[in-house]
Write a structure and sequence with these properties.
The complex is a heterodimer.
Chain A lengths: L3 H5 L4 H7 L16 H19 L6 H4 L4 E4 L5 H6 L9 H10 L3 E8 L4 H21 L5 E8 L5 H9 L1 E9 L10 E7 L10 E7 L6 H18 L9
Parallel strand pairs in A: 1-3, 2-3, 2-4
Antiparallel strand pairs in A: 4-5, 5-6
Helix pairs in contact in A: 6-8, 7-9
Chain B lengths: L3 E4 L2 E4 L3 H7 L5 H5 L7 H11 L6 H4 L9 H8 L3 H7 L4 H10 L2 H8 L4 H8 L4 H8 L6 E2 L3 E2 L6 E4 L8 H12 L7 E4 L6 H18 L6 E3 L3 H9 L7 E4 L4 H6 L4 H12 L10 E5 L3 H4 L8 H12 L6 E5 L11 H17 L4 E4 L10 H13 L4 E4 L4 E2 L4 E2 L3 H11 L5 H10 L2 E2 L2 E2 L19 H7 L3
The chains are: A alpha/beta, B alpha/beta.
């Protein structure tokens, strides 16, 4: 009987129960405290998550990724980024001008932002960015600008990117808040004509792009098809039906 | 009301009662984010010193949000005991602090019935951490659903068996693990990954079938979906014992959660319909400092005061459970372990003084400057403060919500350290199962394989069907 209740009566039950969830069940105990192994494993996962939030990117990384520009938000350091979310949604004035002079209208601007996990960007972007550019080409979208890199990016910086570049659509690849199971999960936020005043309700999201989640190539194909549909339909967000 | 003072030769002037309140607050990132915080430590003390002179009645005259525009304010004012309200109107917050520290728990609860949420938030910022522990520890608040929570000598726990895809088998595996540590006497409460009515009804029925029909555990079951989803699931024949909702301290913030006061009352009616086995407390609320600012509905008021107003709203509905999810919101509201510890002690004290059976989700996210050590520190302080319940999650790692809270082991450790027990009928069940004995874990505790199957009922067709969806 292939049910949990059926399993309850069988040997190897603990193993079978653990197979049903990624929660840390059946980890044993030392008195009323966890075993050393489970405590260390838990703390190690947390340490990796914390480091992912704080970790600085290799200065060469954006260039190696093929980024044509490096933009900075008004969050000047990691503390300011964490404490003042609004600053991570605004480009520095000089960078905004630079972008508006460099990109004067396009179908799609592809941007990569560190977000809350530079580890995620490092792990996923080298496969995801070329895959996305190729998938956009496959969709017949040729007026693609970027990729540009945004340091200190919150999702809302899409509005600034869209306004400055006059892009019809923006795709922002950004590191997610790290969980214990992975610190390497990346999201792609997409929006049609992101401009001042647009909110999450105007955006669409593909999340969980990581080793045990959505593979980068699959995410790239899905994202490109959504973006193509956004450009055709002239909308994005809750009203968008891919 | 005096709004100017001189401290060590420096003059400070404040712009009214609520500016004084905000600047008297202990350091919180969210108050800085809102542009409300004191600029210097001395300015903070100047504000506290002036606030100590403010009479309790001033907050009835000048609530944080205009009652004409805000349902929460109206509820807070309407629900005051008029006799106590008038009795304490002339008492200053400084005097109130001392009176609370001198009084026993019964008297504190009596005083609390005449205090607006703003006055409670005011006296809280005059109190040190140990003041908050010592005062809260005197107050006992009991509430009854299927069982009674909050009795002296108890420390209860919510078993939180969250699963990234709501797989019932995986959820029940975590439930078994929690029960094997004596956790889950307050509620078995799932945050669903899927908030649709059909899925919520499925997990409601599945958990209820296992916990109540299969094992016969004397506790409550709750699915923490949006209240409207739960009501609809109940109307379609779903089964649970508590209705849950996140609440906020202003009407506008409540609206951003998609709720009104009327809807909360409807939630209580939905779960009570046709049930004779439930006591008068059938709601479960969650709160947390910063949610009003986060939804831009804080009306220029500091986050401690807005949090207190959640409890003012909650007390109208006589909930079975209230907890503040104290470290969930992120570092822009509570920056580090120190701020989370302070906020946890404040919220617990304020909830208790409102007469609520107050628990705390002692937690942190990975982008704030806090870790499991901060969390364990706060849990020890809160157990000393008589906190009603904590969350219990396998190793404290929530694999659906991606944050860390207290673990099954933590619940067992706090009970052992402070000599606390679960709710008695639950404890008796655990004793019969051989999980608990003499107030502590037995050698068999922690073995999630020990619950036999099919004992109460030879087989539960409904559960079988739920585990094997066609």
């Amino acid at each position: 009987m292939d049910t949990v209740l059926g399993c309850f009566a069988q040997s190897g039950l603990a193993h079978q129960l653990k197979e049903r969830t990624v929660a840390r069940i059946g980890v044993g105990r030392a008195g009323v405290r966890p075993t050393t192994a489970s405590l260390l494993s838990f703390r190690t996962d947390h340490a990796a998550a914390c480091d992912a939030v704080r970790e600085a990117l290799d200065p060469d990384f954006p260039r190696q990724l093929g980024c044509t520009m490096e933009l900075r938000t008004q969050a000047h350091d990691r503390d300011e980024y964490l404490l003042r979310p609004a600053l991570g949604r605004l480009l520095r004035p000089d960078d905004r001008t630079w972008l508006s002079r460099s990109v004067r209208g396009c179908d799609v601007l592809v941007a990569v932002g560190d977000g809350l996990s530079s580890a995620a960007v490092k792990a996923q972007a080298p496969r995801l960015v070329p895959a996305l550019l190729a998938a956009l080409r496959d969709e017949g979208i040729t007026a693609v600008a970027g990729p540009v890199f945004v340091h200190g990016a919150r999702v809302g910086v899409m509005n600034e990117l869209g306004a400055a570049s006059q892009a019809r659509a923006v795709a922002l690849l950004v590191g997610e808040r790290p969980g214990l199971s992975t610190a390497e999960s990346l999201s792609i936020y997409m929006g049609f004509e992101p401009r001042e005043g647009k909110s999450d309700a105007d955006r669409n999201l593909l999340s969980n792009i990581h080793a045990t989640g959505i593979p980068p190539e699959e995410a790239a194909r899905t994202a490109a098809s959504w973006i193509a549909a956004m450009l055709r339909q002239g909308l994005s967000g809750v009203a968008f039906k891919p | 009301m005096r709004l100017s003072t001189t401290v060590r030769g420096r003059g400070f002037t404040f712009d009214g009662l609520h500016d004084l309140m905000a600047k008297a607050n202990e350091v919180k990132a969210g108050d800085s984010l809102a542009g409300l915080a004191a600029q210097t430590a001395t300015e903070r003390m100047a504000a506290k010193s002036l606030l100590a002179e403010v009479p309790v009645g001033a907050f009835v005259e000048e609530p944080a949000v205009d009652p004409a525009k805000d349902e929460v304010t109206r509820i807070i004012l309407e629900d005051l005991d008029p006799v106590v309200r008038d009795e304490v109107a002339g008492v200053s917050l400084g005097e109130l602090r001392e009176r609370l520290l001198e009084s026993d728990g019964e008297e504190m609860l009596r005083l609390g019935r005449g205090l607006t949420s703003e006055a409670i938030a005011g006296v809280t910022r005059l109190m040190s951490n140990l003041d908050l522990v010592s005062a809260a520890a005197k107050i006992r608040v009991e509430a009854t659903c299927r069982t009674t929570i909050g009795r002296p000598g108890t420390l209860s726990s919510r078993l939180q068996p969250n699963h990234p895809t709501d797989d019932l088998g995986g959820i029940l595996a975590s439930v078994r693990d929690g029960f094997s540590f004596g956790v889950g006497d307050a509620v078995v409460g799932l945050n669903p990954a899927d908030d649709t009515v059909a899925s919520v009804k499925r997990v409601m029925d599945g958990i209820s079938a296992y916990v109540h029909d299969e094992l016969g555990v004397p506790t409550q079951v709750c699915i923490l979906a949006h209240v409207t989803t739960q009501i609809e699931a109940l109307q379609r024949g779903g089964r649970c014992d508590l209705v849950f909702q996140s609440i906020a301290g202003s009407q506008k913030a409540c609206e951003s959660f998609g709720i009104t006061a009327k809807l909360l009352a409807e939630g209580a009616e939905a779960v009570r319909a046709g049930r004779r086995d439930l006591g008068e407390n059938v709601l479960y609320f969650e709160t947390g400092q910063g949610s009003e600012l986060s939804s831009e509905a804080h009306h220029g008021i500091d986050q401690l005061t807005m949090e207190a107003r959640c409890y003012g709203l909650a007390r109208r509905y006589k909930p079975f459970l209230v907890n503040t999810v104290v470290g969930f919101i992120g570092p822009e509201y509570l920056y580090d372990g120190r701020q989370v510890i302070r906020a946890g002690l404040e919220d617990h004290f304020m909830g208790k003084l409102h007469g609520l059976p107050m628990g705390v989700d002692v937690c942190h996210t990975n982008h704030m400057d806090a870790d499991q050590n901060d969390l364990e520190n706060l849990a020890v302080l809160l157990t000393a403060a008589g906190c009603t319940y904590f969350m219990g999650i396998p190793m404290g790692d929530d694999v659906m919500l991606n944050y860390q809270t207290t673990s099954f082991h933590d619940i067992a450790a706090q009970r052992e350290l402070f000599g606390r027990s679960p709710i008695r009928p639950f404890e008796e069940w655990m004793e019969r199962e051989g999980i608990l004995a003499g107030g502590g874990l037995t050698a068999s505790a922690g073995d999630l394989t020990r619950f036999d199957t099919n004992r109460r009922n030879p087989w539960t067709p409904s559960l079988d069907a739920l585990l094997n969806p066609a």
